[in-house]
Specification:
This is CsbD family protein. InterPro entries: CsbD (IPR008462), UPF0337_stress_rsp (IPR050423), YjbJ (IPR026042), YjbJ_sf (IPR036629). Belongs to the UPF0337 (CsbD) family. The chain is mostly helical and 73 residues long. The chain has a single domain, classed as Protein Yjbj, Chain: A (Orthogonal Bundle), CATH 1.10.1470.10. Helix content is 75%, strand content 0%. It is globular.
Length: 73
C-alpha cells in the first residue's frame, strides 16, 4: 500500500469515527492514529462513559463497519 492510499484510508476512517462519536476532535483522531486502545480512551474521556461501554460501542461499530484498520496501522 502506498502512502497516498494509506492517507486516503485514514481520512475515510476518521470520517466514519467522527460520525459515530461526534465529540472527538481532529486532534484526538490524530493522536489515536488507528490505535484501538487510544480510540477507546478518547471515547471514554469525551463522552463520559466507562471503559466497558466504550468497548461495547467500538465492537458494535466495528461489526457494522468492517475494517482491518486497527490491525494495519
Amino acid at each position: 500500500m502506498n502512502k497516498d492510499t494509506a492517507q486516503g484510508n485514514w481520512l475515510q476512517f476518521k470520517g466514519k469515527v467522527k460520525e459515530q462519536w461526534g465529540k472527538l476532535t481532529d486532534d484526538d483522531l490524530d493522536i489515536i492514529a488507528g490505535k484501538r486502545d487510544q480510540l477507546l480512551g478518547k471515547i471514554q474521556e469525551r463522552h463520559g462513559i466507562t471503559k466497558d461501554e466504550a468497548e461495547k460501542q467500538v465492537t458494535a461499530w466495528h461489526e457494522k463497519n468492517p475494517t482491518n484498520f486497527f490491525e494495519r496501522y
